[in-house]
Amino acid sequence: MMLDANASVLTLGDHPEVMAILPNINGLRVLELGAGIGRFTGDLAAKAAHVTAVDFIDEYIKKNERFNGSKYSNIDFKCGDATQIQFGAGEFDVVFSNWLLMYLTDVEVQKLAVNMLRWIKPGGYIFFRESCFRSSGSIKPNFNPTQYRNLSAYQGFFETAVEPIADGRSYSLEFVVAKNIHTYLKQKGNPHQICWLWHKIVKPANVVSMFRMFLDSDQYSFEHILCTEKLFGSSGHVCPGGQDVAKVCTCPILYMVLHLMFSIRT
Fold this sequence. Notes:
The chain is of the alpha/beta class. About 40% of the residues lie in helices and about 20% in strands.
């Protein structure tokens, strides 16, 4: 769970960061899963043609509707479980979720990734943001069902999602970006708030993800993990760049230089 005594300050910083990672949603149909009380619902509705906001806690979605429904006429509010709810194929242009997948089991995330893929149109996008490796909050809850996964786990769930096409090909998800939320890095020294963006494409048969192979063989190899732990400790660290930056970071000397440069800049 994400509870923090400095939540209001963090929200002011992370909202524009998250919205900047999204593609242009002007005039598009957006599905927001795990909408809760509406932290991002209004931001999405201000730009999108239509937003469908879903949360499984009735009290939360009603509060969201009271707050955002009075401001925007382009939002449908639904109480439902993201792992059970049904939508039509290609019904949305973008699926958005913030702090949802970390509350689901691996099996539920795998199933939801396939559903998200089916719910967006070809060329559409999936965005999600999660707490990885460890808790980011300063307040410890009495009960915490959160699963703090690593980057490779989420890569695997979404890279293996497939929607078959009648001609033998399939729709799949192309990795666009995974990056840290800089607000948490600056305010708390925490690089573990991670956003992902994926793009729905037609995948030819027998195509292997080279980025996934790189993560497994280099970025998350035993040797590289040991090197990371020596530099940063065992709490976990994610390189904030894409594949090319991550490849550079497999070199221990360059890794240290980049870390020092980044620390000076921030």
